[in-house]
Specification:
This protein has about 280 residues and is of the alpha/beta class. It has 6 helices and 15 strands. Helices cover about 25% and strands about 30% of the residues. Keywords: Hydrolase. This is omega-amidase.
Length: about 280
């Protein structure tokens, strides 16, 4: 396997959870028809991005309605499906969780957002995920053949240590379902995706909801894929859009040989490690 065809699915929200799921599945089928083996949904695709709504839309993973629908379509189509994120309930706690389903419909892993989005830029964007959500406490990876992939969610990409830990685990790709805001988006969206890719010599996918100015929280849009050189391979606009791109896995090894920064890190001076 030298290439993997990847679909980035930028979705509009719909009035109900059931309509959101149906919209996602329609786009997943289109992605498969265009040859995608790995399909990625955006952050919070089945729920309004709102602390007041997380609890009403939360479900158990993988027993809940959304998980069951995604597992079924992944098995039917034989694809690897990154289920964006949706609110997960476990006991009395809520998490912003990204599940991954394999081509037999099995739950390969799930990742709970480690860094909660608490930000206050007066007059521009104020949000406090920690008012409703609990932070996750561990990394999550899955593999497609020789390609090892790490997971993060939106705000997580602002923490370079996280991507560096995934690099140490042998990941050549990171996926960040992300609902960035339209104020910091033009400033930081491309920059963060390209920086995480360049720093760690890996592919990086940022997958956003489509922009809807009528919602309480307005997502930035502009889903994109970066290659290990830090170049943008493809980029959506603001509306609902399906991006298809092929990633060349040979590039990862070639770049590590040509620019051997991973071998040149000074472990005698500084150290980074994942605690769990």
């Amino acid at each position: 396997m030298s290439t993997v065809r990847v679909a980035l699915v930028q979705l509009y929200g719909r009035p109900t959870k059931q309509e959101c799921i149906a919209n996602a599945i329609s786009q997943i089928r289109q992605a498969k028809d265009r040859g995608a083996r790995l399909i990625i949904l955006p952050e919070c695709f089945n729920s309004p991005y709102s602390t007041a709504e997380f609890g009403r839309h939360a479900e158990e993973i993988p027993r809940g309605e959304t998980s069951q629908a995604l597992a079924k379509v992944a098995a039917e189509l034989g694809v690897y499906l990154v289920g964006g994120t949706y609110p997960e309930r476990e006991g009395t706690r809520l998490y912003n969780t990204c599940p991954v389903f394999g081509p037999k419909g099995e739950l390969l892993c799930k990742y709970r957002k480690l860094h909660l989005f608490d930000m206050d830029i007066p007059g521009q964007c104020t949000f406090q995920e920690s008012a409703a959500l609990t932070a996750g406490d561990r990394l999550a990876t899955f593999s497609i053949g020789s390609l090892k992939i790490g997971l993060g969610i939106c705000w997580d990409k602002r923490f370079p240590e996280l991507a560096a830990c995934y690099r140490q685990l042998g990941c050549d790709m990171m996926i960040f379902p992300s609902a960035f805001d339209p104020y910091t988006g033009p400033l930081h969206w491309d920059l963060l995706g390209r920086a995480r890719a360049l720093d760690n010599q890996m592919f990086v996918a940022l997958v956003s909801p489509a922009r809807d100015p009528t919602t309480e929280y307005v997502a930035y849009g502009y889903s994109l894929m970066c290659d290990p050189w830090g170049r943008v391979l493809c980029r959506a606009k603001e509306e609902q859009e399906l991006l298809i791109t092929d990633i060349d896995l040979k590039m990862c090894g070639e770049i590590k040989q040509q620019i051997p920064i991973l071998r040149q890190k000074r472990g005698d001076i500084y150290e980074l490690k994942a605690m769990k």
